[in-house]
Specification:
single chain, 197 residues, alpha+beta, Nucleotidyltransferase, domain 5, two-stranded antiparallel sheet, 9 strands, globular
Length: 197
């Protein structure tokens, strides 16, 4: 089972204001990388509501790399040609796209899946499929809204869903649950979706 989980935190409500990213890489069902980076956003416009959620303040990112530097140095090699997974992937993929657009960087080629959609199909009886509530159901404790911790929780959710549904890979799980795989590619993107039939 191979996949890479990403999670962004943002400085404000704008998707192009990433201030941290977490990445967890799983190879053959073993976590081989757990990493978190602070990011200096294009503007230092931090909303107090966002600070309350993730605890990251302007002073914390003053000396952090900007996204373009971090992307070329670290992130591109971790994302290109990988299966990306995120909880509420529409948000995280949108942040990634906005940051790439801002710096004029070509989109990488990736497939991606959303664990909100996976959890909605796997644990239909749950009243909410927020990451913290599904993790509570699975007995997984973590520090919610820390980018790396959210990645670890998302990874745990995905592996539990595969086990629950008897699937050996995330892509076979998506096919089993009738979830359309999202795609990001140099000229655009296709969202991850739940197929009606």
């Amino acid at each position: 089972m191979n996949f890479t989980v990403i999670d962004f935190e943002t400085a404000n409500s704008k998707r192009g204001s990433a201030c941290s990213i977490g990445i967890v890489k799983v190879v053959d069902s073993i976590c081989v990388l757990e990493k978190e980076w602070l990011i200096k956003p294009p503007t230092m416009d931090f909303n107090w509501r966002n600070i309350q959620i993730h605890g990251i303040r302007p002073v914390d990112v003053m000396d952090a790399p900007t996204f373009d530097v971090l992307y070329h140095k670290e992130l591109k090699a971790l994302l290109e040609e990988e299966l990306i997974v995120a909880h509420n992937a529409s948000f995280d993929i949108s942040v990634l796209r906005h940051m790439l657009d801002y710096y004029g960087i070509e989109y990488p080629t990736v497939d991606y899946l959303c664990t909100v959609k996976i959890s909605q199909k796997t644990w239909r009886h749950l009243s909410s499929h927020r990451l913290n509530l599904v993790s509570d159901y699975l007995g997984f404790n973590f520090n919610h809204h820390n980018a790396l911790e959210d990645c670890l929780a998302c990874s745990n959710l995905l592996m539990n869903a595969c086990s629950e549904e008897g699937c050996k890979t995330p892509l076979s799980l998506a096919k089993h649950l009738r979830i359309g795989v999202g795609k990001l590619f140099p000229r655009g993107y296709k969202p991850c979706s739940i197929n009606p039939h």
